């Protein structure tokens, strides 16, 4: 580099260097994880994903991942991900001038009859309400409450789903049971690792927690907790697109 080139670079970089020094660090302020939960972003978490036996849902879901737009829309964000991954006909998204599910256009007269959008924004969704909204679209929804399935049934149903392309799992669980803060939450499950008997939750509150691996037994306990709104236990949904003759 010539002397003239060095002088030019120094003049060009000087203002930028000042900005870098003055700017505050931009760090994601996620909450710390307890030791028994493994961050997918860690080396251990990524190795577990590579070794997983059942992960057919991982790529389709991460390709459609969204973060919930408010603190009560975990179920809404989870439904948007699954419906887009299933590639079912979607309402128009005006901002893109095409059919695509968003956390705004998911709602319609049918969903309002199940539970108004304004109520969801205050208190979130029960498992039955989540299933009801999904069922207004051309999908088949199987609902499983925590009190109705054993640990073995829970593991087998979810593993079979994750091992098969084209269907998805949404889980409604109590965060406190798995060591997080703190109430009920909804997110998709994307993978199962048999060696550690752990499931991968793609947490839609990405501003709060990263995707985490959690023991199947602990997550089963977390769905076998009572939702104070419905008076029933939480649980999970198995979702797939309806066949053409339905």
Tally of strands: 9
Mean pLDDT: 90
Rg, alpha carbons: 21 Å
Low-confidence stretches: 1-27
CATH class assignment: Alpha Beta
- Just name the CATH architecture: Alpha-Beta Complex
Percent range for β-strand residues: 15-25%
CATH homologous superfamily heading: Phytochelatin synthase, N-terminal domain
Overall structural domain count: 1
N/C terminus separation: 70 Å
Largest sheet: 7 strands, antiparallel
Please identify the structural class as seen in this structure.
alpha+beta
- From N to C, what is the helix and strand string? HEHHHEEHHHEHEEEEHE
Number of contiguous helices? 9
Main sheet strand line-up: 1-8-7-6-5-9-4
Oligomeric nature of the chains: single chain
Q: What would the principal axes of the Cα set say about the shape?
A: globular
Helix content: 25-40%
Model description:
- The chain has one domain: Phytochelatin synthase, N-terminal domain (Cathepsin B, Chain A), CATH 3.90.70.30.
- Mean pLDDT is 90; it is low at 1-27.
- The strands form two sheets. The protein has a seven-stranded antiparallel β-sheet, with helices on both faces.
- With 246 residues, it is of the alpha+beta class.
- It has nine helices and nine strands.
